[in-house]
Design brief:
heterodimer, A: 321 residues, two-stranded antiparallel sheet, 14 helices, B: 141 residues, mainly alpha, 5 helices, 0% strand, elongated
Chain lengths: 321, 141
């Protein structure tokens, strides 16, 4: 057990180093403008899609182990280090996040961990605002979106470092809105066998925050699990497992509306989308298996480090530094 | 465990229906996407943008890319299905369209359970997703 733990730990570390070296290699570090012409002449057509497949595969592993969605890693890293324009990266990022949510959603709903009653009002606000966010994001000049993306990613790093999680938040009394909408439920905690009754409070404030979350998800193509979970869990008081599962399911709706705006405005290039989807999905598949034998805390630090690095790169790129 | 609590542990019928449609849609969408991509990448279907030229365009802002290649926005891809690259949009559209179908499917169940508020919310969600998918919302690049 100790040997396999060491082996898998070493494997994950090596994959991380490999992807880092790949990202820092000269052609990948080159700017989009430079590679746009040079890349086309220097490499066979399959070079960049193949690199994308490898990097998203590693990303998929780290996303699962670090407890983040694929989109939040995908957009800053791919826009920062690949020759693709941010418009296409955001379109692809949304489809990556959407596919992950579609793959996880049915199981979470059937297990009654994701709550449809909690998701429906939240999703309506978030998905409508994601449309607004996508329109703003596509209308603004790229350098402004890139700068704002960098700042947002660095903000997410701070959020990941500071936000506490509460497994079973203490909700004394459900608020009037959540009572009227009958947003409550029961689930069985598998580890203890205990049956947990849950309800939520501060629903109006939570719904207001989903306006902002929707706009940001659409604007940056990030998915929004990083924001959904703290609002559902810490603010509204849903148990952690319900929050994580409902958040994952929510992305299938929020990202759908934003994804349509990007699709309809031409921001989808199949040669980027399919290798990214395959890479992330295969990586997530391996990541789930590695989850049992690696130390999540260490991986979480690596993910925060990767996000910090990618966020800084996006910020500097946006500012033209 | 009391019966009422045991019942509460299981997902409601509308949630199960939603999950089943979502699952089928996801599998169908991904399957179509992978098959059409194979047709495209292995050269079985001729692409609109030759494979060795794609890298010349993916670094451009989307407005410039569309203008340069004379590609329309919205649902104009439907008229370009003879090309290997545009046939991939079928799978993408299925993945992006399945949530709307799930919402439509649960509305009758919600109404049957006299859950009018959630039926209205579900209908509003269908309208939001339809608006997003319609292609009406064009962005000036």
């Amino acid at each position: 057990m100790l040997m396999s733990r060491r082996f898998y730990g070493l494997l994950v570390a090596k994959l991380g180093t490999l992807s880092f070296l790949l990202l820092c290699s000269r052609p990948v570090m080159a700017t989009a403008e430079g590679v746009m012409t040079a890349g086309a002449q220097d490499h066979a057509w399959w070079f960049w899609p193949l690199v994308l497949l490898v990097v998203t595969f590693v990303m998929g592993i780290f996303a699962v182990l670090g407890g983040v969605g694929g989109g939040v890693l995908f957009v800053p890293i791919i826009s920062g280090f690949f020759p693709f324009h941010l418009d296409f990266v955001r379109g692809t990022g949304l489809l990556v996040a959407l596919s992950g949510a579609l793959a996880a959603g049915p199981g979470l709903l059937k297990m009654n961990l994701a709550s449809l009653r909690l998701a429906i009002p939240v999703a309506l606000i978030a998905s409508a605002c994601a449309i607004v966010g996508a329109i703003i994001g596509l209308a603004l000049p790229t350098h402004i979106v890139q700068t704002a993306l960098g700042a947002t990613i660095l903000g997410i790093c701070v959020l990941m470092l500071t936000a506490k999680k509460s497994e079973f938040p203490d909700v004394q009394e459900a608020d009037r809105l959540s009572s009227a909408l009958r947003i409550y439920g029961v689930y069985q905690e598998k580890s203890t066998g205990n049956v947990v009754d849950w309800k939520v409070h501060r629903t109006p404030l939570g719904l207001c925050l989903f306006i902002l979350i929707g706009v940001m998800a659409g604007m940056f193509g990030l998915g929004a699990g990083w924001a959904n979970v703290p609002v559902l869990n810490l603010l509204m008081g849903a148990p952690l497992k319900i929050s994580v599962a409902t958040s994952k399911f929510l992305l299938s709706i929020t990202d759908t509306s934003a994804a349509w705006i990007y699709i309809n405005n031409g921001c989808v290039i199949p040669m980027m989308v399919v290798p990214s989807l395959v890479g992330i999905m295969l990586g997530s598949f391996i990541g789930v298996r590695l989850l049992a034998v690696t130390k999540p805390t260490v991986i979480r630090w690596i993910v925060i480090g990767m996000l910090g690095f990618a966020g800084t790169k996006a910020l500097l790129k946006g500012l033209g530094i | 465990m009391p019966d009422t609590q045991k019942t509460g542990l299981e997902a409601g019928p509308e949630q199960i229906l939603y999950a089943s449609i979502l699952e089928k849609g996801m599998f169908v969408g991904l399957l179509i996407l992978f098959i059409t991509f194979a047709l495209y990448a292995f050269g079985i279907m001729k692409p609109y943008i030759p494979l060795d030229q794609v890298s010349q365009y993916w670094g451009m802002p989307v407005g410039e890319y569309l203008k340069h290649l004379h590609i329309g926005t919205g649902w104009s891809w439907v008229g370009m299905m003879q090309y290997g690259d545009f046939i991939n949009f079928i799978g993408v559209a299925v993945l992006a369209g399945v949530s709307g179908i799930c919402y439509l499917a649960i509305i009758p169940l919600l109404l049957k359970n006299n859950d009018k508020v959630y039926a209205v919310l579900a209908l509003l969600e269908v309208l939001v997703l339809s608006l997003a998918a319609s292609g009406i919302l064009k962005v000036g690049h």
